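Q&A log
Question type: sequence-to-structure
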Amino acid sequence: MEISRRSFLKKSSGSLVFGVAAGQGVLRPIAAAAAQAASEPVGQKRPIETRSGDMLYRTLGRTGEKISIIGLGGYHIGKPQLSEADSIKIVRSAIDRGITFLDNCWDYNDGKSEIRMGKALREIDRQKVFLMTKIDGRTKEEAARQLDESLKRLQTDHIDLLQHHEVIRPEDPDRIFSEGGAQEAMLEARKAGKIRYIGFTGHKDPFIHLRMLDMAAKNKFHFDAVQMPLNVMDAHFRSFEDQVLPVLVKNDIGVEAMKTFGDDYILRSKVVQPIEALHYSMTLPTSVVITGIDSLQVLDQAIEAARTFKPMTKEEIAALLGRTKEAAQKGQYELYKISQYFDGTAKHPQWLG
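Response status: OK
Response body:
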């Protein structure tokens, strides 16, 4: 019998557990994790951070890896309207200016994003970047095939963080962790040295993220990182911040924020400016805020957000969320939650295997 979202969340306030406590091998209840995390001041939740020049660096959960607070989104560098030469220039300029976290995906722009990033990294010391990409395959065979293709495109012998992409359906966790599922390919790849860390991403509903974390716990697996929308609109509507973030923080799982601008839909609302939107996501206990950069001007904006960042006060947060509340109510600026506009695997189910 399929469990409903409402009954799942009701049950999870009791005995259901997610994630393995770092170094203890103990499963922590979601209710306790969420309650304790929510009671802590925002500033105490954020990962340890250091500053070097204009850039801030934070730790990625229990991995201890230091990564830039700004992550370079991989989708935008493969957009058709951006030349390959310009995209390579953007990647290299970002690295020169302190960005170390590079995001990508096997399916972005039919592979062009990974190919361009691979070319950009040819003349870069591989140790200077933390390279992340994602795969869509739900079967072991398809996941392994996509990973090997990503390695070739990115011109590297290993990926620092590989993630299950678009975990957006209630059944995705079951498929990934089933016998012959994609998680088996991930574990074998890590053992072979092809990848270092394992995570997952999704943008549809916090319920599905919680199912994925629950499935991992049942399989005695601890994710290293989780990627999800964290922005000024999400705080009001089917909120990952409210429902998932406390669990990740409590279990010392790296937090990757995305959809800061919701592509550009959140900015179209005219109720928030780019840098304050970035500052909001950076004020949360995020390890990295991934943002699309398709020009040197947008790169300048992201660097300026890091340079000028100071944690927002409770009063500043309340004022900003007060401004965005009405616009966020129905999710009309978060199309990734309420439509299939951002669902690549819905348009291309063959990618799942």
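Response note: Confidence is low (pLDDT under 50) at residues 1-44.
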